[in-house]
Structures
1.
Amino acid sequence: MEYRLLGRTGEKIPAIGMGTWRIGSYNTAEERAAQVRALQKGVELGMNFIDTAEIYASGRSEEVVGEAVRGTRDKVLIASKVAPGHLHHDDVIRACQASLRRLGTGHIDLYQVHWPDSSVPIKETMSAMEELVKAGSIRHIGVSNFSVKETDDARAALAKSEIVSNQVEYSLSNRYVEPDILPYCRKEKLTLIAYSPLARGRVADTIPQALLRKYNMTPAQMMLNWVTRDEQVVAIPKAADIGHLEENAASVSTKLAPADYGLLEKS
């Protein structure tokens, strides 16, 4: 697994982590146990960055993540997100405390604002985030689905801490971040965390077979390799199937030639 710096922190995270949207949605104990095993397998494969959120499966995603990392917590970087309806100061504090209980941990490594809410002053939200850092409840602050201006405003609202990341949708079929958000992240040394990097499978069939044969990759591996070609980007594909996790973990073992990345972009 290739590791990259998280913002300006000096801390290293894997180029391929694990997303947990829909994890926590289960009907039986067996289904829950399978989700726990999948996350544990991902950590074994080097994907020790797990992203979750308080709204995923109404909090059950965090519970599953907490169970999966029990006994290996110090080896895993956990990211979670505060919901857009909880961005007032006291709501942020309460939301974080509830997430900590569900995760069964004393701290969250990366706590992110899930979506911006213009009706709540960003300074109020960031004040609460800095209090959480000071209390040791969270280690790093991130944002999600923020524009460049919204990110700038969030950074300016912080007194002592820094924004280390922006989590946004990014894939071969959704490249809206490339004109401004990605260059901004490069310039300011913020990590771009790409969610839905496999585009929910929509473009896999368009990848040239000759490229797949040349690099001995599956379509999913090539899509992940492409989206993480920039050192400022890490990806968090969904982590629910052990076979897919093994496939994902091997996706960054080699770099494509620049011309081949160009071919992919035209596919």
2.
Amino acid sequence: MSLRTALGAARTTPMSVYKFFSAASVIFLLAVVISCNSSGDHHQIGGNQSAYITLPSRGSVLLLQIDTSNGMVKAADETPQVPGTSPHGLALLPSKKFLYVANSQANTISIFSVGSNGTLSLTGTPINAGSGPAAAIIDPSGRYLLVTNSFSNDISVFSIDSSSGALTEVSGSPFFANNNPSEMLFVSTGNFLYVTNPSNGLVTAFTFDSASGALHQLSTSPYAADSGASALAIDGSQKFLYVANTTAVNPGQVNHGNISAFNIDAATGAITPVTGSPFTSKVGDGPATISVTPDNRFLFATTAGSSYSIWCFTIDATSGQLTATSGSPFSQSAGDLFSLIDTNGNYFYIGSQSSKGISGYTYDPNTGTPKAISGSPFSTGVAPGKMILVR
């Protein structure tokens, strides 16, 4: 933690604390924080962070509160349950004024206004999407919402009214996205979008027109990943794309599943395999989620269960190649629904169907070794769908 960060944390401390401590005490406290950080502890001073998680079987969205001093998760407010909707993917407007939720069973998108305390209120009537809306994402400009429609094999694109949250489908939408489009991810500039097609092990790539919201599939797309291509991650340099292939067969190994790695052409968006790709674990099956740490050092992939369930790799910043860390794979409680790492790199959260909740971890910033947060897994009552952190 830098001195500026420490001072910023101190400015958020309640006024009563300032009255209690002398100026000398505050300086001493900052010195302790800086000293602790230099010993390898990458956690921040306390406070709370919000998150939202969909609960498909309950037809609702749950507000979570995360204690940033220890990573513990607590359920807060839940939206009214709406049977027959099966909410799944969700996306938060950068202004944090509106949350969009894809209802996979109802084939609609719900719009929620976000209160000052994080609570959600349904705004208007849900609008129509394609068939089987799954993932939802907002482009880096914050002007468009994109939703994959798994059963109609396309992507719906909507322009967003920033003041009311209202959605208007753009001209040409929905855009064909090959068979069973699932997860999607933008490069940071917003000009390229990558989408997985699990049923045929492909990655479909598009250019994105930020002026109109139109998607144009690259002439060289789609690209072969491997069987069950699902989750996506892009490293911090925006040079490498990683894909979790859940059911891929690994020649010479009894386990299934691997990670495809691709070079990204910054000019065209085209992708080519990294030398040595795909990468896999020596044991463990079915990686379904994937995350890259904010420092760009580690890549985590997770599987369901608790045996060999968390794979950890170091990323070669030059080649994009992956190397398993010492001790990987780790036999810890994990899941195959989602994985998220907070922007400070403090905590790692995994959605699990079997535990009906969220497994939470810290990880060693030098080795990547995960360590369960006290109280983990954190129950959501029923199996969650997707989760988003309020950043």
3.
Amino acid sequence: MPVTRGFVGRRRGHERRLPPGQYDVGGSWPVLTAEAIPWISPEQWSIAVNGLVERPTTWTWDEIHRLPPSTYFGDIHCVTTWSKFDVAFKGVSVDALLDAAGPLPEAAYVLAHSTTGYTTNLPMEDVVDGKAWVVWEYGGKPLPREHGGPVRMITPQLYAWKGAKWINRIEFLTKDRQGFWEVRGYSNSAHPWRDDRYS
């Protein structure tokens, strides 16, 4: 699928939903990745929550589907300046994973890992209290491989690179550890409404 970065216009009335410097991409969903897109079957996939937790835990595809389901409906924003309105994802809240694993009091940061070796860093406050999901459906269908399927993380309040595609581990840390894009000059905090793209 081709990478799309062109301006396609804004929908009337949506301007107030656009963070600074963003445009409404409309019905398309651009494909942007830092690495080759892997082939991962649901049967091969698993996710671990470890690091500074009381109970390091790993879920298979079947096991994570037994957790209480959660959905996100809203907007997503990419650092490359596009925004997509009214997207629908289904999976589980990261809060459910943390309830099972029990982060220790000194755990202040998260490093999300992908099967490809990609990583991205987040402070604890950006993954708790209903701010982050591990998802496997988009628009009622399995999450497309090019967008992180079978499973990715989403953190819709931040630019999309903070939601690791093909996620397989969430690691809890005492100190911040920069991820793939952060060591290349991207922002640690990545807040769209602050136009917080680069460090």
4.
Amino acid sequence: MIGFLQGRIAAKAAPGVILDVGGVGYELETPMSTFLVLPAVGAEVRLITHLSVREDAHVLYGFGTEEERRLFRGLLKVSGVGPKIALAVLSGMSVAGFERCVVAEDLAALTKVPGIGRKTAERLVVEMRDRIGHKQLVVASADGEGAGGAQGEAFDALVLAMGYKPAEATRLLKAAGAGGPHSTEELIRRALQIAAQN
């Protein structure tokens, strides 16, 4: 397995790049999130890779960050999602943006990605929710606050202890967190008050 390639950019034309590594030209397909930040032809670059082996081809994919590759690999495990759709997801939104869509069950945003219909979007939400994990969901949905902070603890309490769905817990905590930093207990209390009013 090829974990990464480091070499000189010999050519690039969206969404592909040819990387000269010691005199060997490797063709890589990249998401637009990676392609748009590549340096000019002739510059040195390091790309994290994923090799896809099919009956008719071996295709090498290149990513600027480990997070992008991790999401790409996670998407490939979803029923009905292949490399083309996985690249389209990464080209259409950031890793954090995708995680926010999963948390909020935002099917409308997911169906804006080329190749994703409503049924595929629903599968993405259902199958990726557990793979992303509660801690990452908090990071993705709490506007940059650390998963170990009050937001993360309150999220875990609402979802794991009280049975709220992740999307609902996120909505309640977003409303409860308005107006400044709060303790975990204060966030839970405010979230429950908001839930009771609805």
